[in-house]
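Incident log, support desk, overnight shift.

02:14 A customer reports that sequence design results differ from what the structure should imply. Their input is reproduced verbatim below. On-call engineer (initials T.W.) acknowledged and began investigating.
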């Protein structure tokens, strides 16, 4: 955040006509949240030209030639970033049979609404960590065919045989034999050579990053939710190959041993992290590993596990046990000083409810202003992207505003009044 001297303000006012024809918007904010320092810095005007932030003025100012948006009484923040969503689907009692009934076209049409809900909830960027159509959805948003957040898509998950992302889990033998054993192309690897092949295959398909399933998972049709499912050598082969293509690596992980191997193998982030303890926290701090908690998913599955028939019987006990644990682990992790990035696993819980995660974080004692930082300044670092997550000149014109002061009342994050992505206004008071 820059301190604007009157001379600088004058320069802006004079400069504005020079960019006539360029689309300039001036957001007159009652308050501005600085994500780097995690604090409010007072009233100001965010000037956005051609999709990027041109200037941030430390007062509510008129800018010649600009469309003015009055956000008096509102707090403006950098557009929020959710590091863990699945735009291709959403939990429902029929989820487990959908793959036999729906085509990718069906998944794609359905995701159009999910993407729009996510954007209108204030999330201008997401990391999609696995889903049949996420790469196509990303492309459709970037080309302007549909509305949605910026998407960084992992594409297919990388798992081991029988692992959390093995697409053949739970199939009867006739179908499994007809499909044949899945390999690196389908995202299933055994050994370091296949690990490398799977990363290269994701590159070929257009992924932006890599997602591995380092342990069992709650919702897969398999018994264990927490057993380790990769060797350290396999993780390392994935991380090293990913680096060749400029990919980060996100690791789904619940059990301690699988988390330890993922961290030692060099992954960028641990997702869920249910059974982490002080020893793992220290290891993550040593390696600089991020933690993306997804408390929302934990709460959702623990709740739904109480409803008979919502999940298959093999899933239900895992959902009840693991789901309830995540919020507690999160509280311990941030107190221990582990770096936190915001992620919900939405698609497990409902798209558009992403901001509830802020409340779940604050419930553990985290200050609201710090929770907001996890979805802005921190999350951009997890993505390795340097022009989102802050309201600074040169950054994308991604802005969300809520009425009042969300640093004292985090529930206001569910009352989003204004959303701008890349200089385009998608929601206004
Ligand atoms: Zn997930």
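02:41 Re-run completed on a clean worker. Output:
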């Amino acid at each position: 955040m820059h301190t604007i001297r009157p001379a600088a303000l004058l320069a802006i006012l004079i400069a504005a006509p020079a960019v006539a024809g360029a689309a300039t918007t001036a957001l007159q904010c009652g308050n501005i949240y600085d994500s780097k320092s995690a604090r409010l810095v007072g009233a100001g005007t965010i000037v956005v030209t051609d999709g990027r932030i041109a200037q941030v003025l430390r007062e509510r100012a008129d800018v010649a030639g600009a469309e003015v948006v009055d956000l008096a009484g509102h707090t403006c923040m950098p557009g929020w970033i959710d590091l863990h969503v699945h735009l291709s689907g959403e939990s429902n009692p029929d989820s487990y049979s959908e793959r036999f009934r729906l085509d990718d076209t069906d998944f794609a049409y359905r995701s159009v609404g999910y993407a729009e809900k996510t954007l209108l909830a204030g999330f201008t960027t997401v990391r999609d960590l696995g889903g049949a159509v996420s790469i196509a959805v990303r492309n459709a948003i970037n080309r302007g065919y549909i509305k949605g957040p910026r998407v960084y898509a992992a594409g297919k998950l990388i798992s081991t045989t029988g692992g959390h992302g093995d697409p053949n889990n739970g199939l009867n033998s006739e179908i499994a034999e007809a499909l044949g054993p899945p390999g690196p192309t389908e995202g299933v690897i055994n050994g370091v050579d296949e690990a490398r092949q799977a990363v290269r295959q994701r590159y070929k398909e257009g992924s932006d990053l890599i997602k591995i399933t380092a342990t069992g998972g709650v919702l897969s049709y398999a018994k264990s939710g927490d057993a380790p499912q990769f060797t350290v050598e396999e993780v390392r082969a994935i991380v090293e190959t990913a680096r060749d293509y400029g990919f980060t690596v996100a690791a789904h992980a619940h059990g301690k041993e699988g988390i330890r191997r993922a961290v030692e193998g060099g992954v960028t982030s641990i997702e869920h992290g249910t059974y982490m303890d002080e020893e793992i926290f220290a290891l993550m701090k040593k390696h600089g590993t991020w933690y993306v908690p997804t408390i929302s998913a934990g709460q959702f599955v623990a709740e739904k596990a109480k409803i008979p028939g919502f999940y298959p019987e093999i899933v239900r006990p895992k959902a009840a046990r693991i789901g309830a644990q995540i919020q507690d682990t999160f509280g311990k992790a941030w107190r221990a000083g582990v770096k936190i990035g915001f992620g919900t696993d939405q698609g497990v819980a409902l798209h558009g409810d992403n901001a509830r995660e802020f409340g779940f974080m604050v419930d553990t004692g985290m200050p609201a202003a710090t929770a907001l930082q996890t979805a802005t300044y921190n999350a951009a670092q997890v993505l390795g992207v340097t022009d989102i997550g802050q309201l600074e000149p040169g950054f994308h014109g991604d802005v969300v505003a809520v009425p009042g002061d969300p640093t004292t009342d985090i529930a206001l994050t569910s009352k989003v009044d204004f959303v701008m992505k890349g200089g385009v206004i998608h929601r206004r008071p």
